[in-house]
Amino acid sequence: xxxxxxxxxxxxxxxxxxxxxxxxxxxxxxxxxxxxxxxxxxxxxxxxxxxxxxxxxxxxxxxxxxxxxxxxxxxxxxxxxxxxxxxxxxxxxxxxxxxxxxxxxxxxxxxxxxxxxxxxxxxxxxxxxxxxxxxxxxxxxxxxxxxxxxxxxxxxxxxxxxxxxxxxxxxxxxxxxxxxxxxxxxxxxxxxxxxxxxxxxxxxxxxxxxxxxxxxxxxxxxxxxxxxxxxxxxxxxxxxxxxxxxxxxxxxxxxxxxxxxxxxxxxxxxxxxxxxxxxxx
Length: 281
Description:
Number of helices: 11
Largest sheet: 4 strands, antiparallel
Strand content: 5-15%
Mean pLDDT: 88
Low-confidence stretches: none
Number of strands: 4
């Protein structure tokens, strides 16, 4: 790898053997270096690649303007998230998460901490990502002696969720609110608290998460063949009360999110409602 630009003593902008631009990190890697110098392999601790030059330019700006430790924290959190989730994340999360953490630390230093109104929902709907947020909060405390609450863990979790599903933050927050709204309606229908730890509730929440993302992001359910339409008729006959209740959920979604649910969406929703009501798997 060859240096393109020195960012600081420990970070350089470089070009790899494939002529791709990368960020290279390592202790003293930029000290006394200059454009065109070959980077000694033993000095390289981390190589960061982005999906576009625009993202790379934003990342370089952050590295120049923000404390290096904030960037290193974000990078380590993202690496941990990839390991825990077993999947790649949208690389832009490094930019958005660094911005968020840096700003959160500034607010903390000024005594300006904000509650996360969706903390419960985030913790319940995205438990793995919330656990990553908790890990991040511990890491920030350990390295910067900055103590955040579970509210901040939830904020960080949502950045991971957005990177996981390639969604932006406003859409993901709206989808989370939609799921929460539907669960409140279901709770009233069942006449009591929901068994949040049950497998059938977990499956129902997963179904709602994908439904909510499709609605918020403007996707449509593709109606298929006659067999699928016949399936809807069978569900209406087998579970008339649950199907009728699902219509109430459909009304809530259409009123608040301008989405008219299809026959198949109603049918699958009815099955989940029936399972919750009867306790079957």
